[in-house]
Amino acid sequence: QVQLVESGGGSVQAGDSLRLSCAASGRTFGSYPMGWFRQSPGKEREIVAAISASGSSTYYGDSVKGRFTISRDNAKNTVSLQMNSLKPEDTADYYCAARRSGLGLYTGRNNYDYWGQGTQVTVSS
Length: 125
Fold this sequence. Notes:
The protein has 125 residues and is an all-beta fold. Helices cover 0% and strands 46% of the residues.
C-alpha cells in the first residue's frame, strides 16, 4: 500500500500564492505517475495537474494553465503544486493521487490507485 499525505493548504486572498506538498510512503515512488485533483461542493473531482513518473512530462487543466506548476522530487518521495495568482474559483479540497505504474500522463480519477485525504484551499476576494 502507498500512503499519501497532503499539506500546505490554507486561507488566502485573491492574487496570493500557496505551495501544496504531498509526501508518499511508496517504496518505488520514482515509478508512480502522480496527479493533483480538486473538488468543490456540488462539483465532480477534476484534474488540476499531472506529472509523469520521471517528471519529464506535465499536464495542466485549462483553468490553471500559466498559474500552477507541478513538480516532483523522487529522492524525497514528494510531489508539489505551486499555485500562483490564486482566484476565488480555486477554492476547493485538493487531493494528491498516485498510480502504481505507467509511462505517461494520466488525467482521469479512475486512472489512479491511491489518494491522500486532501487539504483545503480557500481563496477570498
